[in-house]
Amino acid sequence: MSALETESATLTVALVGNPNCGKTTLFNAFTGLHQKIANYPGVTVEKKLGTFMTQHGTEATLIDLPGAYSLQPQSPDEQVTRDVLLGHEEGTARPDRVLCVVDASNLERNLYLATQVLELGLPSVVALNMMDVARANGDDIDLAALSAALGAPVVPCEALTRTGLPELRVALSGKLEPARMTPPPEGEDGIAARYERIGEIVDRCVRKSSTPILSAQERSDRIDAVLIHPLWGWAFFLGLMALLFVSMFSFASFPMDGIKWVFEQAGAKVGPLLPAGDLRSLIVEGIIAGVGSVVVFLPQILILFLFIGLLEDSGYMARAAFLMDRLMGRVGLHGKSFVPLLSCYACAVPGIMATRTIENPNDRLVTILIAPFMSCSARLPVYALMIATLFAGEASALQQGGILLAMYTLGTLTAFAFAWLFKRTLLKAPRSPLILELPPYRRPSLATVVHGLRGRAAAFLKRAGTVIVALSVVLWALAYYPRGGAEMKKEEQLAQSFAGRMGKAIEPALEPIGMNWKMGIGLIGAQAAREVFVSTLAVVYAVGGEDEGGKAEPKSVAQALRQDRWPDGRVVYTPLVCLTVMIFFVLSMQCISTLATMRRETNTWRWPIFAFCYMTGFAYLASLVFYQGGRALGW
Amino acid sequence: MSDSSRTLADLQPGERAVVATFPAEPGTQRLREMGLVAGTRVRLLRFAPMGDPLELEVRGYRLSLRRAEAALIPVQEAAKP
């Protein structure tokens, strides 16, 4: 194909730079919405590709390589960056050109990677980003001298305001010579030699202006004096977490009710269009209700990630890791495990995905394995139902809050206990070092945050549309088949379905923890997603009327539960049983989406299977001890 | 305590120092790549509220390390300006 050799062949440009250098902002500014995200084969490193138009109107591909501090890789991310630049990455052609992003306000450290990259001899352009910050710091950079020293064109820019973007585009579009930068003299210590040369370059090219300006760094230090103050720092941190939880659980309720309503309406509108029977039930009760039960969490996930995005972009997240590192370190974890675990209070799926920022594979695995213990929002409906049953629907705010707090604490403490255990036994490894950059605070860019949110939402909805549809269908079939007679009531039908038979089959195992076969059916339903427990019980106890997809209010379900008796006339849902059910839900691994995410993030079924076994086993054991202990005390 | 045996972890908040020569070991590679090589001027800014990790100023940026890693890096007294 001669077209590949001509000028019109697609140009591939690799975007390289340190973390926090503004690389992603520049990538977004260049490619806008023309982006796609894939994975590099065999690793869970995101491959971000985008297209942009060159000066000559031809399309070029931009690869956003993972942020790296050095070409001697210390993490899978950095390995990918190195392999792509050397042309060793399978399935990714060696880039034609390199756009090397350098933070002008942190020149020395950024030039470490930049000089390594330029020495590869690919045609390169250096984007000198954050020029505004460098100027405010009083640094006057001699661009011509820097360009001569680096052997490549240097273009000043400010990615956030898109300043310098046209010039960068011109530089990338034109004829570009291979970078001329020779490696530092081979010595005993290559790193020191490289820094020595960088020192010379900076001495030659940067002049400190004499006018004293309050630099970004000094301003940042003043903020830090408060935000990581022994007293005010913790107060701010706890206040922020409280605000996050309040927003997640109160502000999110309106859009969540809206989504619930839309799916109910969809079920009600689509149902009559189909003939009554298997197909209608599959679509309305299986697919629409199943997907709806997951999509309903989208508002909470978006609020959580809006928070995390703003905190990350402003530079606070690094401080949170700094504050939390000691606490996390007690159980062998890392300050960097904090954000993923925090995300798990909304949903373990994005939480597990967020562990990608942890470089050490062992630490990352431990964080993934304990993540589902953090009480996610899918458990809330179950807690709410059990609290309503416990207090006959008349729980005071204090009782309700107290029990909820106890459940969240139980999950969190158990997570840490298992982290401690795993780090000492199964995943024994020397403690990985914490090497954390604390970037200067800056005003978060809404555009960057919203861009990230859009990606999260798309990824979440895609999952809801694929894996979750498939699993919803399987669970629907278990609860729907085999069919009994046409006159059979809904609860009788469910009792004799596969799910009902399974519930009865596991009843002997459930009795010691105070549960009967009806709850067993609920537990089977909860394997898809925990909150399905509530809707399954609503069907089992025939609440919500005969109409398909009837709405079940926790209050009316709770009333039905309170009427349930064992064959010998004992009350089934004693306060002790309600608490046991909650404890079981805190501790057990019941969410198929989480297991599927674990599979994808660890590249093996071994870890999700292990997580399922150890968590559910421990949940059973803890429930057994609690229930039998409670009985022995006469509760 | 002789000056040569001090490490980054022994600095007081606000204290300046210069990194002394230390052998290139695999465990210190990333610390060195982050700019902590012999002759680098550093300043200890603060310890985290629970005493660990600590925050350093190095090459114009802020870096956080645990005491355990900081103790790998010997320092000398900074030359008086």
Describe the protein's architecture and organization:
The complex is a heterodimer of chains A (635) and B (81). Chain A is of the alpha/beta class. Among the domains of chain A are: 7-213, P-loop containing nucleotide triphosphate hydrolases (Rossmann fold); 466-632, no CATH class. Chain A has 28 helices and 10 strands. In chain A, the strands form 2 sheets. Chain A has a 7-stranded mixed beta sheet with strand order 2-3-4-1-5-6-8, sandwiched between helices. A two-stranded antiparallel ribbon of chain A has the order 7-9. In chain A, a hairpin with a 6-residue loop joins strand 2 (35-39) and strand 3 (46-53). In chain B, 11% of the residues lie in helices and 30% in strands. The radius of gyration of chain B is 12 Å and the shape is globular. Chain B has 2 helices and 5 strands. Chain B has a single domain (3-77), classed as SH3 type barrels (Roll), CATH 2.30.30.90. Chain B has a 5-stranded antiparallel beta sheet. Chain B has 81 residues and is mostly beta strands. In chain B, a hairpin with a 2-residue loop joins strand 3 (54-58) and strand 4. The mean pLDDT of chain B is 87. Chain B has helices at residues 29-33, 67-70; strands spanning 16-19, 41-47, 54-58, 61-65, 75-77. Strand 10 of chain A pairs antiparallel with strand 4 (61-65) of chain B.
How are the SSEs ordered, and which strands pair?
The complex is a heterodimer of chains A (635) and B (81).
Chain A: E1 11-17, H1 23-31, E2 35-39, E3 46-53, E4 59-64, H2 76-86, E5 97-103, H3 107-118, E6 124-129, H4 131-136, E7 139-141, H5 143-150, E8 154-156, H6 165-173, H7 190-205, E9 206-208, H8 216-227, H9 232-251, H10 253-270, H11 278-295, H12 298-314, H13 316-330, H14 338-343, H15 348-353, H16 361-370, H17 380-390, H18 397-424, E10 435-437, H19 446-465, H20 467-480, H21 490-495, H22 498-510, H23 517-526, H24 532-540, H25 554-563, H26 575-587, H27 592-602, H28 606-632
Helix pairs in contact in A: 3-7, 5-7, 8-9, 9-12, 10-11, 11-20, 12-19, 16-18, 17-25, 17-26, 18-26, 22-23, 23-24, 26-28, 27-28
Chain B: E1 16-19, H1 29-33, E2 41-47, E3 54-58, E4 61-65, H2 67-70, E5 75-77
Antiparallel strand pairs in B: 1-2, 1-5, 2-3, 3-4
